[in-house]
Structure formats: C-alpha cells, structure tokens
Amino acid sequence: MADLEDDPHAATAAVGDLDGPAPPSRRVSAEPAELAEPAEPTDLAEPAELAEPTDLAEPAELAEPTDLAEPAGSLERARELLAAHPIADGHSGLARALKYASGYGYDIELGERVLETDIPRLRDGCVGALFLSLHVPPELTGDRALSATLEQIDLVRSLVAACPEGLRLALSADDMADAHNCGRVATLLGPVSGPALGDSLGTLRAYHALGVRSLTLAGTRWTEGTGLTRFGQEVVREMNRLGVLVDLAGCSADTMRRVLAVAGAPVVISYHPARVPDDVLGLLRDNHGVCMVACTATTIRETADRLDHVREVAGPESVALSGAYDTGTPHAPGLGDVSCFPRVIAELLDRDWPEPDIEALTWSNVSRVLRDAEFLARATHPRRPPSTATLPALDT
Length: 396
Fold this sequence. Notes:
Blueprint: H1 2-6, H2 30-36, H3 41-69, H4 74-84, E1 87-92, H5 94-101, H6 119-124, E2 127-132, H7 142-162, E3 167-169, H8 173-181, E4 185-189, E5 192-193, H9 201-209, E6 214-216, H10 230-242, E7 245-247, H11 253-262, E8 268-269, H12 278-287, E9 290-294, H13 300-314, E10 319-322, H14 341-350, H15 355-380
Parallel strand pairs: 1-2, 2-4, 3-4, 5-6, 6-7, 8-9, 9-10
Helix pairs in contact: 4-14, 5-7, 8-15, 9-10, 11-12, 13-14
C-alpha cells in the first residue's frame, strides 16, 4: 500500500469482469441496404410519403431551439462566461459506457456518436472537469464489485493516457485548475459505489491511493434502518480524514440528515433521482456542501426551475450541475449530449442570474468543495494514523 500512496498516479491492472447489459449495437448496415435495394420509382415515392409526417413534426422539433433563441445574445454570452469558468460535471457514466462499447471500438478523441460524451463535444460544451462514475451494477457484491470497480479505474486511467491532448487525471482542486489552464478536461475518479467498499476501511484507503475522490453511500447496509450505523459514521469520518468526498446521491432523507450531522467536510449530492427535501438543502447550506442538479428534466426550462429552487433554498454557493450523460437516463430536447451545457447557462442568463452565481454554479462550487475536503484531510491527518485492519462485524 505504501507504493500506492507514494504514487497515486500509478496505473492499476484490470481485474475481473464487469457484468451488465449487452453493449450497444451499431447496426447500420442492414437498414441502409434494404432502403437502397429497390432503385425504381417506388423509392422516389417513399420520401414523398415521409415528407408529410416530417412537416407535421417540425413545430415540436423547433419548439426548444425557438425558446433558446429568443434572446439572440444569450448563448454567445453563456459561452463567453464558460470560457473562463467552465462546467465541472458532477456525474458522468462514460466509464461504464466505454466498458460496454469496448467490443465495438470507439474514438473519444476524434468523436464518438455511439456515446453522449467525446472530447470534441466536451470542448463544444465548455466542460472543464468531469467526475467519472465508477458505479457497478447492483447485483455485483463483494469481490465481484471490487474487481469491477478496479477494472473501471484501470479503463479510465488508460483512456486518459491515450488522450493526453484532451484529458488529464486530476487528484485535487489544483489539478483541476492546472488541467483547465492547459486546455485539458480534468478527469476525476468517482464516485465509487458504496457496496464496492466491501465494509472495509482498508479498501477505502486503497481506492484513495488509486486516485478515487468521491464515494456514494447509497446501497449499503450501513445506511439503512436509522439512516447511518456506527460503522457508517466511521466510514464518513475516514473519508473526511482522507479527503474523499461523501456523495449522498440515492440516499434516503434520513441518511442525508444523519451524515450531515456527522460530516466535518462539505458533502455533495451528485445525481439524485428525486427532489431533495428543503430541510436537507438547508442543512447542506450550513455544511457548505453542493447539490448538483442533473440535466434530466423534460425541458431545459424545467432544469432551470430546479436550479432556481436549489439556489433559493440552499444558496448560490450550494448548487452545481450534473450532466448524467451516458447513464442511460433520457435528457430533455436540446440537452442530448455534453455539448449542450451552454444552453442551460443561456436560460439562466435569461432569468437574470448574476454572473458571480453562474460562475459558482459552473466551476467554483465544485472546486471549493474539493479544496475544503483536502484542507480538512491535511489538518486532521496527524491526529489519528490509519489502521490497516478491517473493522469488525457491522452494528445495526
């Protein structure tokens, strides 16, 4: 373990197989062949038959861009702001999506339309930092979950090494800033799913040594029942000692309240499927944590409504963005991939969000939370040296 601590950038070997759904298919050959086969006038008639539905669909397709285009300069102004304060995307499913696409080949550097994320679209979307989720399917537990997580860590490190002109591994807030200043997208490892911890603080420390900077508490037996067991409290305290962000995404409201009462460092909610209760947002404000709003609402306006609400209740220093791209979750029209983030910012500008609040939303809040977690880790590290032993059986 000492070697890993000395060199957190060291690549890990791929271990185990990640079970999951079948990879996406690029079936493009059969359909074009069927359309091209009849070369007679019948083919010429088909576009005429299709033209009418296409005409009928035009208003629906144009509705969202029309909304975005109302203030002519909003999108341009959004891009100007994002050039200096880019998006720090709090949750991307790219790592798992690449695992499924590996048998089909992909080109993240030049562009890959099978996925919702690639380097050209990250640049178009003004994305400066990306948290790559290392979640594994819920049916994987124990050693299989651990192996699948290590395999994803290895995949992400290999991806970053293969794209040095586009991506850079980041282990700290300073690394995020350096990557942006060099024109690279800062790539952060995490969140890891709680079940992949294996109820071991030693495994948590190993993940940190490998570069993981965020872990989700949901789905574990120490966040059930009363919300957080005594072992769960030990996990939170050890994460604070290491500088690993506590991610409450997917946790119950009771667990969120208990964690916010225990945590010494700011926590994050990276990708929560339901609306976070207002009292929890109030506690998050006191904790100086961040609630990341995913771009998964039915419209861009609804996404902006959710951002408005979190900003109003938790304050402008506790709101950020989460793309949730390549997670299999549907997105609003106009927000189909990572290149679409500026449209959200344009909508917020139309709502008269002050520029400092937008700068906090896009970059500063995420950078600050990571920096605060690092500061607490440095401050508390001398007080209690880590134990290499796994804690005894969990309490309930």
